[in-house]
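Design job #97: recover the sequence.
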């Protein structure tokens, strides 16, 4: 009997995937790289690039003029494709930014509020390993610009003219042509490029581990590791379509994770057969097979089990190929992005039809959302009192409850009372 491409599991046997994004051994090795670059500066950065990327003296910093030149040299059809995608990303991000408003609230004796303030400098990482991803350049840098970030630096290893052109379309100021943990350290600590306030973007396990290490010294968006897709399907779903969607994610990376969840056992057999047929003609079949080997097909007994399975997996992408997909979407809480209905294929989200494609993985969707303009701004609160005496007595009393006499005296100076 031919082994199944997807291991078959009952809902109760599904493991939680939280923590897959950064392995312990990778984390330790990445820590050494980050420390080396932080302490050794440009010489250490280029030594890492030589050791890990095979860098041999090629350009590794690209200014705005270099990006504009690459854009001009791009064939018109590809250039216009990038520009259309960027326009869609920008429109969505600008709508998000417009929803973030400053507020003022009356308080005793005056007014308080918050101001939405963009960060000054963003570092945007875009993978360029097996498949360079200009879409990730656009998703990150365009969103940063829409948020109001003043300076945007893209990092991507050995950038092709296409990646440089995408950076120009996205409005980036410069490109750091290096990758991996050493590039993240460079963005965080200002090695070879100015130090960034926030670092965003997807990457491999080295990038993910390095982002976790520098978090706190700079802001990061999330731990976005290898891609994930969970497809929920019922007997109305087309098995060939479900298989196509699974393979679209599986071809990203051997470490990508895919699963199909259903209450219909015959559907799992049909999807399995469809996967086998489609793999026969897929150019990226070797990568996809490696990914499928640690994917899963989950048979649930009822809808509650379906919802519980999805929420425990908390996938990067959740696609609902069911009759009443909108109702099911309302029940599922944990997903980086939800694609509602069989027509709403996840791949459309990859290429700028809808929200951002930089999303939490490894169970991170339990507590984190995807990249958005919120990633690039912070709320600065403020207080302006015209008559501090109105609140001074309560403030002083509370301070004394906590044993902080100097706090109490500072409040009472504003009330006209003096010790």
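Job complete. Output follows.
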């Amino acid at each position: 009997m031919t082994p199944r491409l997807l291991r078959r599991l009952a809902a109760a046997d599904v493991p939680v995937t939280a923590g897959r994004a950064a392995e312990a051994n990778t984390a330790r090795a990445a820590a050494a790289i980050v420390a080396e670059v932080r302490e050794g500066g440009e010489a250490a950065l280029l030594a890492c690039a030589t050791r890990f990327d095979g860098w041999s003296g090629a350009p590794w910093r690209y200014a705005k003029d270099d990006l504009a030149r690459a854009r001009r040299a791009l064939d018109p059809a590809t250039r216009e494709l990038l520009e259309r995608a960027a326009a869609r990303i920008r429109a969505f991000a600008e709508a998000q930014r417009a929803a973030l408003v400053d507020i003022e609230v009356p308080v005793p004796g005056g007014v308080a509020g918050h101001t939405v303030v963009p960060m000054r400098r963003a570092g945007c990482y875009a993978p360029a390993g097996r498949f360079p991803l200009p879409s990730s350049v656009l998703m990150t840098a365009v969103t940063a610009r829409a948020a109001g970030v003043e300076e945007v630096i893209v990092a991507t290893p050995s950038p092709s003219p296409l990646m440089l052109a995408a950076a120009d379309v996205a409005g980036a100021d410069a490109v750091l042509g290096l990758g991996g943990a050493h590039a993240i350290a460079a963005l965080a600590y200002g090695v070879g490029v100015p130090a960034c306030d926030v670092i965003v973007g997807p990457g491999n396990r080295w990038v993910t581990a390095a982002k976790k290490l520098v978090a706190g010294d700079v802001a990061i968006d999330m731990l976005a590791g290898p891609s994930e897709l969970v497809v929920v399907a019922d007997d109305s779903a087309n098995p060939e379509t479900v298989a196509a969607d699974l393979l679209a994610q599986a071809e990203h990376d051997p470490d990508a994770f895919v699963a199909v969840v259903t209450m219909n056992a015959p559907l799992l057999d049909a999807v399995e057969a469809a996967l086998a047929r489609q793999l026969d003609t897929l150019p990226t079949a070797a990568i996809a097979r490696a990914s499928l080997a640690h994917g899963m097909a989950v048979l649930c007994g009822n809808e509650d089990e379906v919802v519980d399975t999805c929420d425990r997996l908390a996938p990067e992408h959740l696609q609902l190929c069911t009759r009443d997909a909108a109702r099911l979407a309302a029940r599922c809480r944990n997903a980086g992005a939800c694609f509602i209905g069989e027509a709403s294929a996840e791949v459309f989200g990859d290429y700028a039809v809808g929200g951002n494609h930089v999303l939490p993985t490894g169970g991170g969707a339990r507590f984190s959302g995807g990249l958005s303009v919120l990633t690039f701004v912070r709320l600065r609160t403020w207080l302006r009192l015209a008559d501090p005496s109105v609140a001074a007595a309560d403030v002083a009393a509370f301070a004394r409850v906590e044993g902080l006499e100097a706090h109490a005296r500072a409040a009472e100076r504003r009330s006209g009372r003096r010790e």
